[in-house]
Amino acid sequence: MASEATDGWSRTWRIGVVALAVAAAIAVWLLATRLFPYHSLNHDEAVYLQQAAMLLDGQLFLSPPIEEAFRPWFFVQDGGRLYGKYAPVTAALFAVGQLAGAARLALAGIAAANVALVALIGRELFDRRTGLVAAAFVLASPLFLLDSAVFLPYAPTTMLNLAFLYAYLRADRGGGSRWAVGAGAAVGLAFFSRPYTTVLFAAPVIAHALWTLYEDRGDALPRQAVTATVGLCGVALALGYNALTTGSPFVFPYQAFAPRDGLGFGYHRILGHDIEYTVGLALRSNALVLEQLVTTWVAGGLLGTTVALGGLAVAVKRGLSPRQGILVGQVGAIVVGNVYFWGNYNLLGVLDRAGDGLIASHGPYYHFDLLLPFGAFAAVGALALLRFVRRSVDGRVEPRAARVVVVAAVLVGAGLLGGATAANVERPIEMNAVATDTYETVYEPFEERSLDGGLVFLPTPYGDWLNHPFQHLRNDPSFDGETVYAMDERPFAVVDAYPNRTRYRFTFRGAWEPFDGAPRGGHIQPVGHAAGESVTLNVTAGLPSTFRTVSATLTADDESVTVVGQNVSDPAAVRVRFTDGSAQVVSPDWPSREPVPYDDQKDVSLTLFVDSGPGASFSYRFETPVRRDGSRVRALTPRIERCVAIGECSGEAGYVPALAPSWATVRTNLTATEGNG
Questions:
Q1: In this structure, how many other beta carbons lie within 10 angstroms of the beta carbon of residue 549?
Q2: Which letter does DSSP use for residue 219 in this model?
């Protein structure tokens, strides 16, 4: 009978684990497809997805036709090739999902694996019931749900770390050499994926391994040696990848990208962002990160944290085993170790501004591995509370009434924890939902038309990078997919590299602040190309009925010519002629014959200032790429802005017809002529 009961409980436990894993997969799939269909505010997602596509094509390097126009976000430039700042392990996992039909299947699978592994580890360290409840606490944590639903490395690396710990515990329990091999393989891959994260997670496990060697060297040495040897193979793989990419086994790609990025105190810098990361700043930053973790990003928030602390106290009172002590050690190692990493400062954005930085939308993801000890000790605490309630009513009321009281206590506790979790997760979900709504609006032009065979020039609001911020618009590794995306740098070289593609330019209106509902819309503009001894830009621009005067300013380099239009009517018509080294307004209504010289490395801008009285004046700006090619001139259709505020014509006032007044119609075309006529 006892065996049957045990078998029944074992089956129930397995069903419970599977149910929680399936629930995790479904929840993460729904979040990934509905909350993050265009990816999130963290643009590192594009790096991993680009690397995944490269791996599927059998590539570790990109070889774009023009590096300045095709460099993806966080890719290192090395001669004529590019490689990712990050190790390819996470990307390989996402590539597996792509092979299965969709990259987001990998997200769902990783989430399910993490929940199942938490349950298995909980069973190894405590018992089956604790393992199930621990998995439920992890599943219900906002940090787990949101960061498992995006293409970032934290959940995948945690999966490898959890697999390592579970295999290690099984080997420690006498599971045989295969578990020791599995532990080594998992920790080796985890190190390859995120070395420092893995070192912090594994440090207490290594301490436990050393303790077992001290206690029983003869039994422990063979399995620990196997785990260490296989794990070191993963380290060797990481160092080999470093040598292949950076040229040195001890220089990681992220160091090649930004030598001042990484661990330690002192001066740090990445791109244009730098700081003196002092011990005081480190302690303050990490205190704020931990405050967010324990109050917002774990199941139940502060209430869940209190339950976990109570569970830790219960476990200590019962007598922590050395194996259970691994979890306590991980809390210390991860918390203290992250103080040494300036990324936690960057995560916060502006320290004195609440809700700033990526922590507001993604949580404290550098502490993702703390979900395991949180879930385990929260489970111990919750079950201890349940036993206390049961003991309190046993013998005082009828058995049926006692069961009712226990069930009521479970429901009340779950309701309190669930209510706190829902309140905490509401803000980041709303923030990400606003960003997704903005992306949907901005990307709408791409959904409305086919761009197969097209070449699309993209704006660069964050500097000269692809996929930053336009993660949804990525090139194939061959840079010859159905649609090719290029920065608007060296546009004529790009045109020459793709002579048979239809050209477009994408623009948007408003600052790039998706969490604040901006930009307000996007537009795809066909781009023409003209070449001859001279090229003429013909512009017509709609005017409001209230306009008084219109002036035209032609600017190239630091020189400009301004002329007030004569007898201008709606729409205003302007012609600019580009010849070898100079540009000139040649329209009869604009009496100017003074040319403006232009340099080959600069574009020429035409600004039409429409005076409609105080508060109603605005400008049209046409920025035309022009280059000399021997004795000939080449030009592309200009970038167009409609600026209603002083200083707005700086990339944030893109002309989007759907957002302009009905009278504000704009037309441009280019004509090339031979000779001077």
A1: 13
A2: H
